[in-house]
Amino acid sequence: MSSSRPDSLADPFVTALNTPLDLSQSLEPPRASYLSPSSETAVSPRDSYADTPDNVSPLVPENEKRDAIAYTQESREEPVLRKRSILRRPLFWLIAFAALTIVVLAVVLPVYFVVIKHHNNSTVGTSAGGSGDGNGNPPPPGTTTTGGNGSVITTADGTKFTYLNPFGGIWVDNPNDPFNNGAYPNSWTPPLNSSWTWGVDKVYGVNLGGLFVLEPFITPALYQKYPGSVDEWTLSTLMAADTASGGLQQLETHYNTFITEQDIAEIAGAGLNWIRLPIPFWAVEKWDFEPFLEKVCWPYILRVLQWARKYGIRVNLDLHTIPGSQNGYNHSGKSGSVNFLNGVMGLANAQRALDYIRIITEFISQPEWVDVVPVFSIVNEALLSTIGTDQIISFYLLAHDMIRNITGYGEGHGPYIAIHDGFLGTAAWAGFLQGSDRIILDIHPYFAFDAQTDWPPIATGTGLSAGGIWPQQACSAWGPDMNTSQTAFGVTIAGEFSDGYNDCGLYLTGVGNTVSYGTSCSPFLDASQWNSSMIAGLNEFTLASMDALQNWFFWTWKVGNSSTTNSVQSPLWSYQLGLQYGWIPTDPRTAIGTCAALGVTGPQFNGVYLPYQTGGPGAGTIVAASVTSYGQYPPTPINGLTAGAIQSLIPTYTSTSAVPTLPPPTLSPSPSPSVNVGNGWFDSRDTGLAPTQVQGCTYPNAWDAVSSPMPTALCPSTGGATPVTPPTPVTTSISVTPPTPVPTSTSVTTTSATTSLA
């Protein structure tokens, strides 16, 4: 059988909160008032909020200023200055004076425009502007452009908007230095080219959900157009058949328009400093039996990363889908069964997943991207009640060693590795893989999916009574766990949370589950009808959630309109809409102290992690007990097999195929020839091939193989296929190499998840 690999602080309301909005006005796309097309005067609070005690952090790092000055001097130096034999000639002094003038201007002008003028621009919004002609027209090619509050942005398609950022952030864009990391989104966030200090710096972030992984409740119009679509698998199948509408290329239109540069600018202007960017594995490739649009989203992913760089926003890159599905949810690519590390095709799908993690790691570890993407979430929401905890830990240990063998060990060598708690809660992960190198625990706390049927009201008044039980519940349920986990595990973040205290929203619990958008939920589907009590309650709930979670990413930045109502029908999940209507704070720092004000107390984290947890001494030297417990790969047993199945006969792939390397961006305008854009591969020693099907072997459906009949013999008969092998270790730290599958037991039984990890 041939391989199936393809060839290829808050804004005031302008009206009373209880006044319904004019429904004739389109809400697409909703825009925060602080980033309107027209400039408004705003005073920067930069001097009021400092990230150093003496408040002397420069607007642009000294090394950036030195680089700019050196570049200018080199391009303008006069060779006549070296001729010392004509010191007494008047002509020499005239030439020397002129050269000196040029040098002085070369030093003063960059400092003036980047530092002094920028500082003035940050405090006088309406008169501010970036480099250029003052009318938003782009400067000459090769000129560094930078600006702050009130500057006019001209996008690649010629669209102009005013960048309103009252928090002292600056953007940087230089066609001849496209990987310049000097920007920062606000005064309390270090520039991209400066260190992020976990325990000191705080993550205030949003997800860009629905952009590259299409969820029905975030992009309802696409699903409404194709009845019967319930996930991206069925949507892609139905869309591909609709050639009259453009087939699957309709998705490229979505990639190009759903999130724009102005969205990223708004995120920076909202006091946020991170985005979590969910991406699908088919950004790398798909196999022939999968209906997804292959590779097309990758250039748009790079465009988002470049926009993030421009505005100084860090990115948590999230591999949101896994071959075979890691949870059976619609946002995994295909709803239904779990076929990752579970069932007959569980190991084969894990091989593909590991290779995609490898390929993405190689790309983002390149020097051009390592400062923009400091965190890589390798598997989103693996369903451990099905997969098993021991099984996923074995995979995580293997992935950890593979990643660190690519990047090297310790701070500054590649991204942090984020793993989801698998819905077990933070306590289950205490002491996880002690000595590992920079692993983050990611939790997704939601009240909406707690299987409640009767939610207490949140519109209970304004002032101290706002929000009913919900603000205090957020503080009590989440705050203590987050503080404890940062001591017991290490860096802990909330990669997702929302204002969805109930499960109301169009398609929120899936297409066809009309309970979430039926009569009982109708009051929660239209934010334009909410009164002041509702807005105040949601605002207090939001502040409490942010304070309790400390380092967070709201799910999600934007929810698209329903095609039937031309409005957002899941408003509790849209940060952008919350900013527009007033239940999301325009300055996330106002959340600090909310839980204490509500009387919620508990354990506190002192802000200091163990050295190994942030890449310090000991990072990468995993304790022997963990290696003994979880170092065997493939793990045993694999769940989801028929009774009496022989695990050694589980189908696997062979690593004999070419690796689909991710390409660098095509930059426009083209930078100078000296600019290195990279080749997509950080570690040249990593020469292993990619997994593919073994010729002549028959495989079950990779996305629906749970409890499928097991093969009765190895294929090929000479032995099992070889799993993906990590590159040779580069340090003396403990490394785990996956062995060739061998018979380890005569039967497989399902085991429950463990309650603690070591």
Provide an overview of this structure:
It contains 15 helices and 15 strands. An eight-stranded parallel beta sheet has the order 12-11-10-9-8-7-6-13. It has a three-stranded antiparallel beta sheet with strand order 1-4-5. Helix content is 25%, strand content 8%. Helix 1 (62-76) runs antiparallel to helix 2.
Any key phrases for this structure?
758 residues, alpha/beta, eight-stranded parallel β-sheet, 15 helices, disordered N terminus
Brief digest:
The chain is of the alpha/beta class. Helices cover 25% and strands 8% of the residues.
* Widest sheet, order of strands: 12-11-10-9-8-7-6-13
Q: Kindly, what is the distance between the CA atoms of the first and last residues, rounded to a whole number of angstroms? A: 43 Å
Q: Radius of gyration in whole Å, from Cα?
A: 27 Å
Number of E strands: 15
User: What is the 3D form?
Assistant: globular
Mean pLDDT reading = 82
Question: Structural class of the helix and strand makeup?
Answer: alpha/beta
Largest beta sheet, briefly?
A: 8 strands, parallel
Low-pLDDT segments, ≥5 res: 1-93, 106-136, 719-758
Helix content: 25-40%
Write the element-wise H/E pattern from the N-terminal end onward: HHEEEEEEHHHHEHEHEHHEEHEHEHHHEE
Strand composition percent: 5-15%
Number of helices: 15
